[in-house]
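Run log // design_07
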């Protein structure tokens, strides 16, 4: 074990020594030759074994440190060499950058750059090119060295470059008048703007480009204007060939396009007019004529203007059809105006700026009795006045010269003057002098002699009217179209207790209403009166009854007058109103009594019907053989009872029908009514009476008369009542007639009796309820038959009437409509 440990120690020692020895030449060869160091190492080998381990560890650490120092030294040597090469490269790049920078700024310019994602600009170059002060960031305030519009344009261009990389190239003029070029590009993730001054050829080129752009814009604008023009415009070259045509020209010549018009040499003017235009342009620089042209298949009048421009010519055709028509119409109107003036009763004379007569009408010549030859010679104003004065046809003047000079002031006036001349022959003339806009004066003479006479008569009539109104018992007030009181009489003042002085100030109707309200304060009636006075469109008569607070009653009427005024009249009808009120109350009492009578009859009719029905039923029951035999007297009495109850029931039914009609509850069951069957049904109910009274019934109706729309039961009831009435009024052995005929619009039934006839006073009330007049005949009844006839016919929309009275007998005409709609109920 000890031997093994010693062997390991020796081996380690020898290894460390070998390692140290082998490492020394690497560190420094001089150490290897140092014998002292080797001897020291050898001496160490003789140390105690216990220190061997410590020494071994120390030597290992020492060897590691030495090795690390050597490696670090080698690394520093290599880094020094690399740094030397990098510095040489940087110096070369710096020299190259300086050369490029010198080349870049060989001419005055400014560079502005923005790195991607960085909003801070880098500005380099000669900023004095644009600004005097040394403030590079002020360059970005474009408004400090550019006019407003170019500055705004520059702002938009830079924003577009930085946001979306859109390049730009702008030629700008600074506020100092220097021409600069601004170019923006996106290069290598950076936005770069270069601004440099334009000089020499570049400046000339920029100015030329700018001028070209302006000319192109101006040309485009002019072409756009020409194309938008509604008038045909064209241009021709030096040889007369068409070189340009606008859209209106293309449409006028019916070409497909501008190129089509140029290729086909389509001309707007015909050959004769073109030749005339070319000849005129060859001798002068412009051509103008009004010519007829066929454009789009329609011949119209155009004002054609053409002129020489450059080596060719341009032309335009302006539609003058309307102007030509207006010109012709103006000539015709002037002629018609002259003819109209000749028809006027007023004398008209027009003198021009040289005061010579330019126009006169026939009334003027007749008014002054002047010769046509004299007036047609265009005399001056003074000559006309002198001739009229010599003939004593002008007003007498103490100083005629001054009067004429004052009259001639109208030639220098600006407003119309009016005067009245009183002539020596008793006539009065109204003279109006109107200065003409183009110079001269127009005289208008009207004979107002009759008008003045009428005015005097009118004044007299006004005085008479005033006195008449003052004497009226009715209150009268006239309000003008402006609503103010123009005229009033004392009765009006007294009736409304007003002050005459206040009314003379022409108060408004609102003010008058306030004064009158203590006596009458109904706002609705006053509003109606106010609207009748102040309304413009609805000018109608208004009639009101005013019950005043003092118990009096006035009848108010408004009457629109032709001059726009309104006349109010107030009439005191207090006494009349009191009498009318008393009569109305009496009439209401009579109506109430009549209604009570009708209600009583209706009530009694309903009350009678129930026992009558019972009596009739028991009478029929007693007459039945099953109830047992009756004696002759009993059968006779029972027959009398049956007939009387049947008559009473018919009367009651008639009363109930009338009550139903009066209540508006009667309804018609409409359907086809056979006219022949209706007459037969009505006659069948009268066979016993006809046989008893030996009355012959004569029916006159066409078997093919047909039918009409109505209530068959009510029609039969109408005919039955008419026939029953006729039989009752006719004597025995007489003839009663009924006829029916058809017209275009109705069916007419006519019933005639042979009775004594009806006097006029009976005819007027014959159709009224409970009106019964026997007139010496056998007719007896309650007077309901004809009343029912009239009610049922009216429900059908027809009419019933008496024929004109004859010497004997009565004829009733009953008419039912065919086509018009009939009433279905009695509510109407």
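design_07 sequence
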């Amino acid at each position: 074990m000890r031997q093994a440990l010693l062997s390991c120690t020796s081996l380690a020692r020898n290894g460390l020594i070998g390692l140290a020895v082998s490492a020394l030449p690497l560190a420094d060869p001089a150490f290897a030759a140092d014998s002292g160091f080797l001897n020291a190492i050898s001496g160490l080998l003789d140390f105690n074994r216990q220190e061997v381990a410590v020494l071994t560890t120390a030597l290992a650490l020492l060897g590691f440190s030495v090795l690390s120092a050597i490696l670090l030294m080698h690394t520093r040597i290599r880094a020094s060499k690399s740094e030397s090469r990098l510095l040489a490269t940087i110096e070369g790049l710096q020299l190259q950058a300086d050369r490029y920078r010198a080349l870049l700024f060989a001419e005055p310019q400014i560079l502005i750059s923005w790195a991607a994602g960085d909003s801070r600009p880098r500005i380099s170059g000669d900023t004095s090119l644009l600004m005097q002060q040394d403030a590079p960031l002020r360059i970005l305030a474009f408004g400090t060295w550019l006019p407003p519009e170019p500055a705004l344009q520059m702002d938009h261009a830079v924003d577009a470059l930085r946001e979306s990389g859109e390049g730009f190239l702008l030629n700008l003029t600074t506020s100092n008048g220097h021409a600069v070029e601004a170019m923006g590009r996106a290069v290598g993730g950076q936005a770069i703007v270069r601004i440099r001054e334009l000089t020499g050829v570049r400046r000339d080129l920029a100015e030329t480009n700018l001028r070209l752009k302006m000319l192109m814009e101006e040309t485009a604008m002019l072409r756009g204007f020409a194309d938008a023009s509604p008038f045909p415009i064209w241009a021709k070259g030096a040889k007369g060939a068409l070189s340009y045509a606008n859209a209106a020209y293309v449409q006028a010549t019916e070409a497909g396009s501008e190129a089509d018009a140029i290729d086909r040499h389509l001309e707007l003017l015909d050959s004769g007019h073109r030749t005339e235009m070319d000849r005129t342009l060859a001798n002068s620089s412009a051509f103008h004529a009004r010519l007829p042209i066929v454009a789009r298949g329609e011949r119209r009048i155009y004002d054609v203007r053409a002129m020489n421009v450059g080596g060719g010519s341009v032309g335009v055709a302006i539609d003058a059809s309307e102007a030509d028509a207006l010109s012709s119409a103006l000539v015709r109107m002037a002629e018609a105006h002259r003819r109209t003036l000749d028809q006027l009763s007023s004398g008209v004379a027009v003198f021009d700026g040289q005061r010579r007569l330019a126009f006169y009408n026939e009334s003027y010549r007749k008014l002054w009795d002047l010769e046509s030859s004299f007036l047609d010679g265009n005399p001056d104003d003074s000559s006309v006045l002198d001739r009229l004065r010599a003939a004593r046809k002008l007003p007498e003047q103490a100083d005629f010269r001054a009067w004429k000079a004052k009259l001639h002031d109208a030639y220098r006036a600006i407003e119309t003057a009016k005067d009245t001349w009183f002539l020596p022959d008793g006539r009065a003339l109204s003279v109006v002098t109107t200065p003409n806009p183009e110079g001269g004066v127009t005289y208008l003479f009207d004979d107002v002699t009759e008008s003045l006479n009428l005015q005097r008569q009118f004044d007299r009539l006004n005085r008479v009217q005033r006195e008449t109104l003052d004497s009226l018992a009715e209150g009268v007030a006239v309000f003008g179209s402006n609503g103010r009181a123009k005229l009033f009489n004392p009765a009006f003042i007294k009736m409304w207790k007003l002050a005459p002085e206040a009314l003379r100030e022409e108060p408004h109707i609102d003010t008058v209403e306030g004064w009158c309200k203590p006596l009458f304060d109904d706002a609705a009636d006053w509003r109606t009166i106010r609207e009748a006075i102040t309304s413009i469109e609805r000018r109608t008569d208004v009639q009101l009854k005013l019950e005043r607070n003092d118990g009096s009653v006035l009848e108010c009427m408004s009457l629109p007058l032709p001059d726009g005024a309104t006349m109010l009249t107030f009439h005191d009808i207090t006494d009349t109103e009191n009498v009318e009120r008393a009569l109305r109350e009496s009439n209401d009492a009579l109506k109430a009594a009549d209604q009570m009578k009708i209600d009583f009859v209706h009530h009694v009719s309903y009350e009678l019907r129930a026992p009558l029905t019972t009596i009739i039923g028991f009478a029929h029951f007693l007459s039945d053989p099953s109830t047992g035999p009756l004696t002759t007297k009993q059968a006779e009495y029972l027959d009398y009872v049956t007939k009387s109850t049947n008559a009473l029931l018919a009367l009651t039914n008639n009363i109930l029908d009338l009550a139903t009609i009066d209540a508006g509850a009667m309804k018609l069951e409409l359907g086809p009514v056979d006219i022949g069957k209706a007459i037969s049904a009505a006659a069948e109910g009268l066979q016993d009476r006809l046989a008893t009274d030996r009355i012959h019934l004569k029916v006159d109706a066409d078997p093919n008369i047909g039918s009409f729309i109505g209530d068959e039961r009510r029609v039969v009831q109408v005919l039955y009542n008419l026939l029953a009435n006729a039989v009752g009024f006719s004597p025995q052995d007489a003839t009663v007639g009924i006829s029916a005929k058809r017209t275009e619009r109705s069916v007419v039934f006519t019933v005639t009796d042979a009775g004594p006839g009806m006097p006029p006073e009976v005819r007027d009330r014959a159709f009224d309820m409970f009106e019964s007049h026997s007139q010496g005949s056998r007719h007896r009844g309650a007077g309901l038959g004809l009343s029912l006839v009239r009610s049922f016919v009216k429900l059908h929309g027809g009419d019933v009437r008496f024929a004109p009275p004859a010497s004997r007998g009565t004829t009733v005409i009953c008419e039912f409509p065919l086509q018009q709609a009939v009433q279905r109920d009695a509510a109407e």
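The longest helix spans residues 50-104.
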